Structures are given as structure tokens and as C-alpha cells.
Amino acid sequence: MQQNDQQQQANQQPINQQQDFKNYQVKEGSIPQGQGQGQTQIKNKKFIKYGALALLLGFIGTIFLLPETVDTSAEAVAALQQGYSTQLPVGTRLLGKDQQLQSRDFIIPHTSAADKQSILVWDFAAEDGDYVQLFNEIGAITGVFMIKNTPQAIEVAAIGVITVKGMIDGGGGITYAIYSPLTETIYYNGTQANAQNTYTFTKQ
After folding, report:
1. Are 188 and 194 in contact (CB under 8 A)?
2. Which of 54, 61, 81, 157 has the maximum number of C-beta atoms within 10 A of its C-beta?
């Protein structure tokens, strides 16, 4: 009887070891369902995020690298020839680089009852470091400042003489435009360092 019991135990022991080994393999090799898929989704989200950021930065850089638009229409050509325009938008560029233009003094009549006006001044050619200063009959009304392609507002009298004096020529002459809201007109002009233009506003 004892021999039979020992043989049965010997026969059962390999079976139990095989079962334990199978169970061990299942436990150690098992991966929770969806874990690998989740990691892949995280990587994909990061890739999309950084890819979108790179595209956005590239688009912004392209905008800043685009050249400024120069108006070469018939209205722009006429404005340069006659020195003024009532049709072109404020801030319009007429030249890609500065040129020696005719220096003009303007007498500007208007019918406004205003005491003051806010004129706009800008460089209608290349923004290359041209500096001017504005005066009235009493003295300076601005400091020396660089004229840029972006219009700058300056408050002046509605009646009187405004003088624009060239201070520094960045190269090729000082080109600038002045818009008066009293006449809704842009006046295009050119000057040089230590030279000046006058704008005489009168009431009709």
C-alpha cells in the first residue's frame, strides 16, 4: 500500500509542477489590455502637438519675411507727380527705395472750425533711418524722430505754418508724407538734411 501511495504522489508531482509553470508564464508574460495602445496614443498626441507648433512658427516667420507692398497703380504715379492724393489710403508705400524728389511748400486752405488737428506722418519709401523735426511759428513741436512706414500721429494747429525740417538722411533723400484730416488729403514730399518744407494751413 505504501509503495502504491508513493507511486501516485510521484506521478502527481510533475503534473503540479507543469501547472505551476504554466500559471507563472501567464502571470509574468501578461500585459494589461489597452496599455500598449495608450502609450501609442500619447506619442501620437505629442507628435501632433509639436508638429502644429512648428507649422505655426513657420507661418509667422513667412509673414515677417514677406516684402512690403509698393503701390505702382496709376493713382500712385499721379500722386508722386503732383505731390498729393485724395484717393490713396493712409500709409501707402509709393517707392521701394528713397529717391531725390521735388521739395514742395504747400498752402492748404480748409473750412474746418477746429482749433487743432492730428496729422499723420510716415515714410512712403524705404524705412532707412530718415529723421525729421516739426516746428510751428513759435518753435519746435516735436523732438527729432525717425519717420517710419507706419504713420505717426502729431497734434498741430488747424491754422498756421508747420515746418518739417530734415535732420538725418538715411540714404537717397528724405521722403515722407503728411495726411491732414481737415482736407482729407495726403501730401507727398521730399527734403534733405538741414533743408525744410512748409505747410501753411489757412481758414477759408
Report:
1. no
2. 157
